[in-house]
C-alpha cells in the first residue's frame, strides 16, 4: 500500500487489558479522498483514531503518514506533522470567542522568537497578517463570520462543531480526522455540515478520515469505508457497496431468527 496514500495502517493491534479493541486492522487512505470508519458501538473506530493520532499507540502494527512511521510518536508531534482532529464530544476552549478558538488552530505554525520580533518587528507583523489571512479564508468557507465574536459556550452545538472543524482546518492538515462530527445534530444541521465538509474538501484539497454513524451521511460524504465489528474488519470498499454487505447489515441489525 504505497503511491498516493496519505495514511497507511498496517495490521494494527490494540488491547485494553483482556479486551482486544483492534485485531490486525489494515487501511490506507488516499490523497484527496473522504474515507469513512463505520461500525456498531464498541467496534473499535475511536481506538483506531486514537492509535493514528498518538493518544493510544498500537501494541503491534505500523502507521505511516506520507511514508513516515508515526506510531510511538506523541500526539503533539503527530499533530505538527499534519494530522488535525476533532472530537466526539466537542473540545473547544471555554470562555473564549469563536475567533480566538479558531486562531488556536494556527499555534502549530507559531514559533515565538522574541529577539527576532524585537529586531525585525515588520517580520512578526507579516507573519501575523499571514495567519489572519488563512483564518479569514476558513471563516468565510464555513460561514462563521456572523458568530466570530460570540463566546463558544453560548452558541448551539451545531455551530460549536463547525468552530471545531474551522480550528482543525486552520492547521492546514495533510490528514483531517473527524470523530462523529454530526453527533447530536438535527437533520438540517447534519445537511449543513455535510455541505461544509464537501466545500472545504473542494477548496482546500483535503484528505479526510471520518467516524460516522449516520448512513445517509456516510453515503453522501465518503468515497470508501472500512466497517469494523468487534475490532475486526468485516468490509472495506466503496461506501454504498460496503454498507450493503450482508455481514455489515447483520452486524447492525442482527441475523433474522429463521436464518441458518
Ligand atoms: N481507554 C480504554 N480503556 C479500556 N477499554 C477501552 C478503552 N477505549 C476503548 N476501550 C474498549 O475498546 C473497545 C472499542 O471501543 P471504541 O471506543 O474504539 O469503539 P467505537 O467503535 O468507537 O464505539 P462508539 O461508536 O460507541 O464510539 C470497547 O470494548 C471499549 O470498551
From TrEMBL:
It comes from the Bacteria. Keywords: ATP-binding, Nucleotide-binding, Transport. GO terms for molecular function: ATP binding; ATP hydrolysis activity. GO terms for cellular component: plasma membrane. The keyword NADP does not apply. Pfam families: ABC_tran. This is ABC transporter ATP-binding protein. It comes from Paracoccus subflavus. The lineage of its organism: Bacteria, Pseudomonadati, Pseudomonadota, Alphaproteobacteria, Rhodobacterales.
Amino acid at each position: 500500500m504505497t503511491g498516493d496514500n496519505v495514511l497507511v495502517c498496517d495490521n494494527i493491534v490494540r488491547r485494553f487489558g483482556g479486551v482486544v479493541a483492534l485485531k490486525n486492522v489494515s487501511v490506507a487512505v488516499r490523497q484527496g479522498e473522504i474515507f469513512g470508519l463505520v461500525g456498531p458501538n464498541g467496534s473499535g473506530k475511536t481506538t483506531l483514531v486514537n492509535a493514528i493520532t498518538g493518544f493510544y499507540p498500537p501494541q503491534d502494527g505500523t502507521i505511516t503518514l506520507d511514508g513516515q512511521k508515526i506510531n510511538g510518536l506523541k500526539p503533539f508531534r503527530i499533530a505538527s506533522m499534519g494530522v488535525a482532529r476533532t472530537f466526539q464530544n466537542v473540545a473547544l476552549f471555554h470562555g473564549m470567542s469563536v475567533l480566538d478558538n479558531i486562531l488556536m488552530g494556527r499555534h502549530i505554525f507559531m514559533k515565538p522568537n522574541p529577539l527576532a520580533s524585537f529586531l525585525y518587528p515588520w517580520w512578526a507583523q507579516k507573519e501575523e497578517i499571514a495567519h489572519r489571512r488563512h483564518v479569514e479564508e476558513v471563516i468565510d468557507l464555513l460561514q462563521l463570520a456572523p458568530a466570530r465574536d460570540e463566546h463558544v459556550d453560548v452558541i448551539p452545538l451545531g455551530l460549536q462543531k463547525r468552530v471545531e472543524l474551522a480550528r482543525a482546518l486552520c492547521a492546514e492538515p495533510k490528514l483531517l480526522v473527524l470523530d462523529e462530527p454530526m453527533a447530536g445534530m438535527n437533520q438540517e444541521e447534519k445537511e449543513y455540515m455535510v455541505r461544509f465538509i464537501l466545500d472545504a474538501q473542494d477548496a482546500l484539497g483535503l484528505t479526510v478520515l471520518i467516524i460516522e454513524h449516520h448512513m445517509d451521511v456516510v453515503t453522501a460524504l465518503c468515497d470508501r469505508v472500512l466497517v469494523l465489528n468487534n475490532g475486526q474488519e468485516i468490509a472495506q470498499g466503496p461506501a454504498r457497496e460496503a454498507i450493503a454487505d450482508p455481514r455489515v447489515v447483520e452486524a447492525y441489525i442482527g441475523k433474522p431468527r429463521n436464518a441458518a
